[in-house]
Amino acid sequence: xxxxxxxxxxxxxxxxxxxxxxxxxxxxxxxxxxxxxxxxxxxxxxxxxxxxxxxxxxxxxxxxxxxxxxxxxxxxxxxxxxxxxxxxxxxxxxxxxxxxxxxxxxxxxxxxxxxxxxxxxxxxxxxxxxxxxxxxxxxxxxxxxxxxxxxxxxxxxxxxxxxxxxxxxxxxxxxxxxxxxxxxxxxxxxxxxxxxxxxxxxxxxxxxxxxxxxxxxxxxxxxxxxxxxxxxxxxxx
Amino acid sequence: xxxxxxxxxxxxxxxxxxxxxxxxxxxxxxxxxxxxxxxxxxxxxxxxxxxxxxxxxxxxxxxxxxxxxxxxxxxxxxxxxxxxxxxxxxxxxxxxxxxxxxxxxxxxxxxxxxxxxxxxxxxxxxxxxxxxxxxxxxxxxxxxxxxxxxxxxxxxxxxxxxxxxxxxxxxxxxxxxxxxxxxxxxxxxxxxxxxxxxxxxxxxxxxxxxxxxxxxxxxxxxxxxxxx
Lengths: 237, 228
Hints:
By secondary structure, chain A is α/β, with parallel strands linked by helices. Chain A contains eight helices and eleven strands.
């Protein structure tokens, strides 16, 4: 896809094959715009986006499927919890199982427990701290992806899902979330500029800089240089 | 106090509020989410009753609802009688005259709901209709109430349009404000005072209700904090 936004001229082409793929790159490199284009919140000037054979967008034919009809669920970098709803109601908002409310609620409860939100379930979302809101926002997208009514699974897009959380909690949540999503076979594309996050997820990495894909492959290969640089810095200290 | 006029005024204000909200909700949402020259033109038309003398609006409506124009003839055919000097005619006039009071608070309320919430809901698979009713409208509910209260009280207090379009027919078009005018013309200041006090009471109650809404306003989009 090609798209110009702000000072960045985005021109990227990639294919997602791994269960969890990470878009890695510096701020302003166009990572968020890629996610927004896939979810349908941005209409690229040129390009084609396909998921499991279903064309979501094709500039040559003018096809553009609106966001709510795409097999894609997303959580933005900001939490955007609905302030007039409780944490539980926020998590249930995107449930795709309206005819199976009990099962959907079970998924929401399990996800809340995974994200350490159980005790906050009935609180108003405006009462939460910044970190709690961020966790609830990611959990909300996860519930929506897990309860997505096919065909196929929804692609889950997470924009810097754990930035700002303390390291211990982030590590715990990342591992728990990866296992939970693997269980439900939910493919993920997330954005990060945290090296540790990409390594911990053992994800496929798409390195992006100045709106271009620099490299794609296993984290050990693609981010080897960055890892080495970080280790040298740590040794020097 | 003329109780018949009071009842008519309340009936007119309630009907105007209900009908106008049904019109104003989609119109305000369109204005709030639109852009370009069409939006500016519609906004100007909606705001026109704010700056026009009510008698101008009343005069044009009198002509438009009469048998001289095609829409007027159609409406006469539909209603079975001329709409001018009738309750229905008064209702049409009130709807047009109070349009900005219903639409503008709603536009402000909708615009205050950050697009981040709308995008978040879309990203969870919610259709635009569901986003409007489950996110935008509840978050702008203080504006919805303001819109209803302003429309109701503005209709209670209107005079120029009513006089031009409805005249002064007891039980059909004589509202409280017209009744007050009559009483003053007759030199009946004591009764005029009672009627005027009732109108002041309406306005005061409405304003107190509007300013007593901090709990409703708390969940308005503009006051919800967001993690970035």
